Please model this.
Amino acid sequence: MRLGKVAYWTLGKIGGGIFVLWAVATAIFFGIRMIPGDPAEAIMGGPGSQASAEALAAARAEYRLDQPLLAQYFGQLWRLATGDLGTSYSLKVPVAEVLGELVPPTLTLAVLSLLVAWVLALAVATASIRSGAVGRALASGLEIVSAAVPHFWLASVLILLFSTSLGWLPPVSTQTPAGLVLPVATLALPLAGFLGQVMRDSMLDAHISSFALSARARGESENGVLLRHALRHAALPGIALSGWAFGSLLSGAVVVESIFARPGLGRSLLSAVTARDIPMVTGVALLSAAAYVVIMAFSDIAERLADPRVRAA
Amino acid sequence: MTHARTLAPRVLTTSAMVAAALVLAGCTSTPAPAPGAGNDAGTPVTGGTLVYASGDAEPSCLDPHVGGNYPQALVSSQYLETLYTKDAKGELVPWLATGSTVSDDGLTRTVKIREGIKFTDGTALDAAAVKANFEHLRDPKTASSTGYLALGKIKTMKAVDASTLELKLSTPDNALLESFSMPWVAIESPTALKRSQEENCAAPVGTGPFKVESWKKQDSVNLVRNADYVQPTDSPSHAGAAYLDGITWRFIPEAATRYAALQAGEVNIIDNAQPDTIAAAAKNEAIKHLDAPRPGASNRIELNSSKAPFDDVRVREAFIHAVNVNAGVDSLFFGTAKRSYSPLSSVEPLGFSEESLFAYDPAKAGQLLDAAGYTQRDAEGYRTKDGKRLSLVFPVSTSQSIPAEQSLFQQLQATAKESGIEVKINLLDLSSWYGELFQHKYNLVSAPYTKVGPSVLSILFHSDSTIPAPSGYFANLSQVKNPELDKLLETAGSTKDEAERKDLYAKAQKLVLEGYYLLPLYDQQNHFLYSAKTQGVGTTTYSAKTQGVGTTTAVASPTFFDTWLGK
Model:
């Protein structure tokens, strides 16, 4: 019976994922074509290009833009379904190849930021719980402020402080660990504020709950209660939020990668949209959607593992 | 034989120069000047990699034949060279060519190609190589726009011998040599052009002082010294190859990051420096400023005369007197942009200015609007005629207008309101902005246009340019359709008499200015900031060798042949 449930759950996730990918591909296909102008001109070097009629005709034929819209749409879906992401208009190389190069730097940035945000959020939550009402109010204020800070502004302040004034860290993100500090901090700080808020609340609930009381009665130390019981409770909403957080990290990457001049998916999405590079925009969006679907599934699984109540339900 | 004869003196001069350079190089082993002695004095030092940080878009192809925009011109000027270029005085001088003649009917142009120059792949530069480049530009598969347009009047071409290229034109074109000076018509190795477009885009092969080593997308283009470089002029600025080992051409889109990287010493030179940054850098002795306005058209607001209310010249004139441009330029550009009163850039020798037409004069604007029938005011204080508000639509492309310019437009909007004119500014991305233009949904518009020489006027103001290109683009955004103007521009473009050309272009500019079809603002902004330790960054051209400075190309992109890195 149990296996049936898992299979059902898995099938549901896969079906939902496919639906999301199809919806994204469709929205992008028609969305970009609603912008006035001719995609062929984007292939010819961007909008307003003064390309000759012959050159435009050649581009239309090469990219099948001379076919009826619906034929283009179904052709596109078929190619996507068979794993062919097409060739970038602006870079003139296969989209899959470009994505292959850009996924690692963005993934590094997102994963590190998520980890740092978790560590920061847990550290602040744990410390504030141990430091009484004033400490909690202070931490809460800090979290609200940092959760509300826009990435763009934070990045500028960090560069001004740590690069221009102190000269400790490079303003341009290099492949060295030092070059990663500011971009990761820019993404991690607002996220930590957000995660911290939620984690601290449930940690506090756990801290004063009856099972914490009974643990203390059994002779468990205050640290032991925090680490063995409260932490686990705090982690639950954190895990649930991490799927969402990862998605927000990808959108944050658009800003951070541009400011710190880091290669990555976010920056290429921005330039692809500006250049009306339809295959590239579609590729990045589908990849992000797929990542989102997978991560949501993982966060579901992690939640089940961490919380016996969800598992039983 | 001819080859050997012309080569001999070159070899001799070169050896003399190498000898001189060696003597000079000897001087560098003397004790270094005391700190604070200033960086300007000193002998060029060989070695080191210059880091250039560009805020322009990353080119999608490093070959400027493909497409043809300014970011490509900037980077390709380091590894590609042109047949002609412009000197410090803005005059056209031969570069990879040695000269050119034109037949009496103006229909046959003979170009002499310089001998003894080699592409970095070893291919020799000759007339056939230049012909192959022009054919490449005209091939629809290349997808050239700027270069393709520049060569539009060439009908057939023939390499008569190794150094002679004969071009037959459909109509006389006295702008052809100016077109040859543009990086979009730069000359590449014909051997390399035979590769696939993908390969050629990744590493075009030219005759320049540097060559493309590698390109890491979204990060940098890595350029290394062309050790065999020969500067194609009779008076080279220095002998031998460039001083720099190479250039790392980085792409840093965010202006504040570029400036921070320059301050931190991570990069040596940045482009697209913003007005506030330039003002801040002026107080910093470690940073220098290079102002190199682009040629061609000035930055201007065009008034769409094809529909109401700007089909009435009185309303156009009223708008121009209603807006206070100078106050906005002064406050928003911190003195980094000089007001223009011409359709052409200040670096165009044939530019014509008429300041008196553009005075801020709300009283006069009011009279003109009264005369045009806008005598009533609505509840919000805007003027109306037959119950219809005097309202202007102004689509602004956020990727082409820098923040200071967008703020200027807002100030113009505010001053226009005082005269009862409503200006609706729509901030749009580039594609949507073009979309509005194609559908004529604009009364006011600001669009850049870079081309070398006054012939840009024909692109912007000839009535032919109101007809959209296949892509939907039309360059005559003010929609001037004036047979007298067309005639002036056509004659100016084909005359062989330089004085007549100047006179005709002046008349044409006077006509568009007096017709109030445009509101000139300032030159196309092209500001560079560089570390004072970086010596010999281009300020003018190779002829200014006494200052030890480098060069800018005809489209004002800096070159780094004479640049070296100080301690």
User: Anything to note?
Assistant: Chain A has two domains: 2-81, 95-312. The two ends of chain A are 14 Å apart (CA to CA). Residues 2-81 of chain A form one domain. Chain A has 13 helices and no strands.
